[in-house]
Amino acid sequence: MAGISFSGVASGIQWGDIVDQLIAAESARNLAPLQSRLTLIDRQRTAWTSFNTLLGTFQDVAKQLRTGELFGQYSATGGLSSATGQAIVTATPTSSAAPGTYSVEVLSVARAQKLSGGVFADSTTALGVSGTFNVGGQEVAIDAGDSLNAIRDSINSLNAGGSPTRVSAAIVSGATGGSRLVLTSDVPGEQGTGLVDGPDGVLRQLGFMDSRTRLVAAADQPIATAIGASSPGATSIAVNGRSFSLDLGSDSLNDVAARLRSAGISASVVAEPYGYGTAYRLQIGGHATATADAGSEEALALLDVDVGVLASDSQIVSGPVFTSGAAAATGSTSLAGLVADGIDHGIAIGDAIHLTGTRGDGSAFTVGLTVQAGDTLDMLITRFNDETEGLGSGSRPAEAMLGADGRIRLVDGLGGDSQLSFTLSVVDPDGKSIALGGSSIEVTGRSREITSGSSAQVLVDGVLHQASGTELVDAIPGVTLRLEQAMPGTVTELAITRDETKTVEAMKQLVEAYNAVAAFVDDQRRTGQPLASNSTLRGAMSAINNALRTEVVDAGDYTRGTIVGLSLDRYGRLQLDETRLRESLAHSPADVKLLFGEMGVGRALEDVVKGLTRGGDGTIAMMTSSLDQQKSSVERRQSAVEARLELRRDHLTAQFVSMEALVAQLQNQGNWFASQMSSLQPSS
């Protein structure tokens, strides 16, 4: 009958109000205490949670003191250039540092190796190179159908996971066009990219390395004579798959180098100290292999061609092809009547042939020869190479040479990026100029090693130290030096001093955290607070105070916290005498550290707080668990009371409805009886 409304029409009595008042009275007597109990349980649980949070902060501070990391701290000053004020070195001292002043000079900083491969037309075309090589300790396999882009991606895929190569690959474009693969070590130091070529000479074909022959006694003698061996006769060898004729019985290293350069292959003869004299070897920009010709393998074995060094490539530029009749011009070909690229320009005696252009460093040159009777191409080449006015002069000379194909080539005297170029022209006595043709690049000048991997070199108090990275450890005991920049010749002073700032700050944090806990406990003692008479809370505060008073007999003169400046005032608040603490730290930092360390106040405080805040069986966890159980029990009782009250309401309502119906029935009977009596009265 819940929800039935009645107003006592028959009786004139508001029975619904009477029922509400009866239920309210029973609710106040039976249900209200349970609701109040639930509210108190929630407040108590919230209070314990707040206490747990405050203790967590207190525990963190106690742990800082217990570990001792904040004791015996040092700071570093200096490390700047006296001339510029810039930082040369910065220092991070540890607790094991030794106070003092140190002289530091950074001679060089560590550098990461960066290597450049050869120049190719584009990065998307298959290179036709296959084989394996190693980078950063891992093998890279490529197929003939791979482009530069594909090789780049293969290398970068290995620079990941648990054992990365620490080498990154990228494609760059040069100022003169073309694409090249660049490898960069992610880690500075002499270890570099760790490139190791495989048996197929992939790295040499890609231009990262060259090939070099054995040392021979002379560069201008037949190679067989220079090495004291028998020649296998006329044969050939291949460089990057292209065949070149070779006869060790007649060819010198200079001859072979010139032949390779004439075909656009980087090649140079280098001199090296050997014994009490000088020996020579040929460096070839590519991978040399034997051909099917007889004697090829024997010739290659006599040359002992092996993986070379990371030498730079010299730029080679070529001009027009000179011919005499149907044959390629030679050194003895007359200048008069010379044909350039199949065109007879009518070069005659009295005409001037000019070579104009820029050297590798961008400086301009112009050199020429007036044609006389009997002048030959050899005489023109000699004039071009003049060391006073020609290519042989200047800070970056070059060399002109005539190839077997009749083409004039200029070779930069230095390796690396180059601006070497030229044009040939003829001027007749009337001043009329005819262009014979400009130059084109056959070998792009480049440095294989753009940046060499190197260790940092640092003088500390005159002692030389090396570091593979940007940091130098323990050159100064207990101090890590970060090398900001190299500044040879500039000595900077670095001072390591004791620093109690962090220790004092930690003590201040301890005071703040303790007082927050104490204030909470004091507040909960007030009447009306959820934990107002809670003995567990009082016991927790007592345990903390006992830990704070821990005595450490092995801490020398500092056996208690009060001795170093910690004390409780009359209100139970922790105070810190900072001056006294600093004096204690200055006198014996080791003893103060011991006082708050593993066997001291820090450990005692941390252990007490752990016992209070630990999950599961910790004091606060057990208290909140008990409250949760109490809440569940009260909620069950509340539900039962609410159900009984609802039944009571239904019962009262049913009774009052029945009583109202009876009153209505009696009223109806009375009305009938009155009407009957009225009908018996005599009429007037």
Amino-to-carboxy terminus distance: 54 Å
State Rg. Answer: 50 Å
Count up the domains: 5
**What's the mean pLDDT score?**
87
Overall, the morphology is elongated
**Which regions are unreliable across 5 or more consecutive residues at pLDDT < 50?**
1-6
Helix content: 25-40%
Q: What's the tally of helices?
A: 14
Largest pleated sheet? 7 strands, antiparallel
Kindly state the number of beta strands: 35
How would you classify the helix and strand content by structural class? alpha+beta
| Relative strand content | 25-35%
Explain what the structure shows.
This protein has 14 helices and 35 strands. The longest helix is centred in the C-terminal third of the chain and has 62 residues, at 619-680. The strands form nine sheets. Strands 17, 18, 19, 20, 23, 24 and 27 form a seven-stranded antiparallel β-sheet that branches. A five-stranded antiparallel β-sheet has the order 1-33-3-29-30, with no helix packed on it. Strand 11 and strand 12 (242-246) form a beta hairpin. The chain is 33% helix and 26% strand. The chain is of the alpha+beta class. The protein is elongated and about 175 Å long. The protein folds into five domains: 41-71 and 501-623, no CATH class; 75-107 and 459-466 and 479-498, no CATH class; 114-205, Alpha-Beta Plaits, CATH 3.30.70; 211-307; 315-444, no CATH class.
Q: Any key phrases for this structure?
A:
684 residues; alpha+beta; Alpha-Beta Plaits; 5 domains; 7-stranded antiparallel sheet; 5-stranded antiparallel sheet; elongated
